[in-house]
Every structure is written in C-alpha cells, then in structure tokens.
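Ticket opened by: R.M.
Priority: normal
Category: complex prediction / small molecule

The reporter submitted a protein together with coenzyme A and asked that the result be attached to this ticket for the collaborator who will pick it up next week. Submitted input follows.
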Amino acid sequence: MSRPRVKAPIRTLRDVHRPAILRHLLDLGEDDRYLRFGYAAHDGQIRRYVAGLRFDCDEVFGIFNWRMQLIAMAHLAYMIEGMGQHTAEFGVSVSGHARGRGFGNQLFARAVRHARNEGVRKLVIHALTENAAMLAIARKGGATVERDGPESQALLVLPPADFESNVTELMDEQLARSQYYIKLGRHRVRRWWRRLAGWGQLMVRRRPGS
Ligand SMILES: CC(C)(COP(=O)(O)OP(=O)(O)OC[C@H]1O[C@@H](n2cnc3c(N)ncnc32)[C@H](O)[C@@H]1OP(=O)(O)O)[C@@H](O)C(=O)NCCC(=O)NCCS
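Result attached by the on-call engineer:
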C-alpha cells in the first residue's frame, strides 16, 4: 500500500548538523550502506565521510522529523570537468521507516533545482543496478540510465536557471527553515518539561515521610 505523500520541508544543512547526519547514516543497515556508498561502509568509514563533508563547497539537504531526527538527506558534490563544465554528483538516503513517502523524489528535485541555480550543467548519479528505487527516482526526474553490469550511471542534463527556479528555491528554503525552528522550539520545550517532571518526582521521593 502506498503511503501518503506530503511536501517535505527540505533545508540546507550546515556544520552544526554533522552529528545528526552521522546518526542518520550510522542508523542505515548493512544493505542500505552498500546501496548508498557502493560498498558496505563500516562505522569508521561513515565517520570519515561525515567529517569530510565540505559544507562551504558542496550542498547537503535534509528533512527533520518532529523529534529533530534527520530522516532523509542528500549530498550534492560539485566537480569541475574539462573545459570548465560544471557537473555535480547526487547521493541520497532515507531512513527505513520514512521510505515510500516521496522524500527521495523530493530531495532529487530540490538538488536538481539548486544545481541549476548554481550553473551546473550535468547531474550524475552512481547507483547499483539492483537499486530499483534510486533508478526509478532518476528516470522519473528525466535522467537517462546507462547500465554497466552491476553498476549503473544516471545522467541528467540540466536546463539553465530561470526566474522560477530561483524564486522556488528561495521560498522552499525559507519555509523549510521556519518549520525547522518551530520543530526545534517544540523539541526543546518538551525536553524541559520532561526534565522538570523528573526533578519533581525526585523531590517528592526525597521529602521526609513521603
Ligand atoms: C533510494 C531511496 C533514497 C528512496 O527513498 P524513498 O523516500 O523511499 O523514495 P520515494 O518514496 O521518493 O520514491 C521511490 C520510488 O522508487 C520506486 N520504487 C521503490 N522500490 C522499488 C522497486 N523495488 N522497484 C521499482 N521501483 C521501486 C517507488 O515506487 C517510487 O517511485 P514513484 O515515485 O514513481 O512512486 C531509499 O530507498 C534509500 O535511502 N535507500 C538506501 C540508500 C540508497 O540506495 N541511496 C541511493 C544511492 S545514492
């Protein structure tokens, strides 16, 4: 049964989000790590990958739930090819419990729009041929997929940026950031309430005669 699809608030991630990114990736099972990185990345390799993320050069996008857990993320890594042609590589992961809601598709669409606005002309996705979900997202987004045995490469030639792509990205980012801070505020208030409740119970237990 397909799950309801809602527009997710996708925001750009920064250095401060490294711990959330690490938790999200470490939570991926062995098979998912294999699909995401092309090899069964162990914890140490994931830690190195996260430590090496270059937020000043590349772009990382994420979706947080109400518990402020990062449940989906995408990494757009820029490469300059010969003749100065700008190319970017797209990688994505969605937590197991959040799949099938369109987050993968939406992160792809967001990355495509951002890449266009940054003047990127080609988007590349390296995926294992068995990765039907990733290849479905790429095809749906207009990419052509070339299969080379167990590995496939999806290629999407991007149209230049226009007014619509710039305004839409700006608005999406603003909306996602406001939702992020609302979630963060609610999360902190709930944490304080839980702590207060804990202290309250401790005081009652310590009261002589109680
Ligand atoms: C690939 C991945 C990101 C998809 O995330 P998701 O949020 O479930 O993706 P969506 O819900 O947006 O859509 C998935 C699409 O794949 C399709 N799909 C899923 N499983 C499929 C399968 N076995 N065969 C064919 N299509 C499949 C879905 O029907 C959907 O297509 P639709 O939009 O036309 O309905 C997620 O499965 C994941 O994190 N996998 C592990 C990491 C990985 O493989 N990363 C990609 C390599 S970079």
